[in-house]
Amino acid sequence: MAQYSGFERKIAFILTKFPWIKSGVKKVYQKLNYLRYKKIYTFKSDYSIKKIGLKNKESYFGYYDKSPINKTNEYIIFQSTNIDTTTMPNPNIPVDMIVYDIANENYERIGQSDTYNWQQGTKLMWIDEYRFIYNDFDKNRKKYISKIYDIESNETKVIDFPIYDSFEDKFAISLNFERLDIARADYSYCNLGTKINWEDNSNDGLYYVDFETNSSKLIITLEDIIKLNYKDTMKDAKHKFNHVMISPDGTKMIFMHRWFLNDGRRYDTLYVSSAVGSDIKIVADDDMVSHCFWYDESHIFAYLRDKDMGDKYYMMDMDGKKELVGEGVIDKFGDGHPHVHGSKVIFDTYPDKARMKNLYMYDYEKKELKKLGEFLESFDFYGETRCDLHPRFSFDGKRVFFDSVHEGSRGLYVMELSK
Predict the structure, then answer these.
(1) Contact 413/50 with Cβ under 8 angstroms?
(2) Which helix (H) or strand (E) holds 139?
(3) Is the full-model pTM beyond 0.85?
């Protein structure tokens, strides 16, 4: 297996202090390794895999924290586009919102959205068995909105605010999607083209969106968090919140505070609070937080840095107490995107030296690791146009959904875990 070694990762860590140098060196080194380790196949798996999507169009779901299939296993939702996704999204060309009826093998376009990116799409997600929500842009009012679509009634309800994460049909947490453009455009929207006042952190942050009243309230400002946990590196830095995830019972949320220096260096802190923004606690504060997932109502599975134990996967409680997960088993793969079902965790890897992204399932209780497949990502998809696998379980845990470009274009795939 052509994984990157511990030594190579140490060099990469040292280069994080010089972001602009790292970017160029990294790509050249990856291309040289690809020429040496290139495989004769584009994917390999012992499981049944099916592509979900319309003919001659690219399809994708988005981030790893939500599943595209509903709880009754009747419908799959995703975004579809004619755009060549090796290029950046174009806010003047919308993506289609598609519902796939599994039993009848029927695709239906229910709308379009001008507000999307390749990493997280339109923040498309189910809010109950037959309703889902996604973000859009109201051109007449010049504002971001979200729409709730009901499959049974074919009705659409407009919410006057965009969402980042939702809890059922009750509420959502939102943030400033234009501010996400700091250093990279992977997760941002650019329909407004807002010029951020980076010195004003007191009027921007996390918003509570009430679906019933169609109202929004700023509950945690960036300034609140800066004052709570001030560091010298925060002075003159650009700040944002990102990766909000509401707990399974809807009572809490985790969120990242990220700040960027003028030379491109980034720092992260992970927080937990109530869903309305009270009782804020620091969960991880060793400069780097990557990908998280709620394991249950009181524990978080995450890849992050501990200054004593290193950059690895951890299980953490609400006080930030950490336990190493899969030491010597899964930590050799580096960062990935974890999704949890019961005691099982699926996670992907970034491209190895052969540009293969690997998909694994780890049983936290049994301490067992199983490889589900490997998939090529060519250099056509790189940086902000990359296509991470972003694996997600179905609600019953019998299927895994993932986005991939191993066939040369972006596609949503479903893997049956029963061979």
Answers:
(1) yes
(2) none
(3) yes
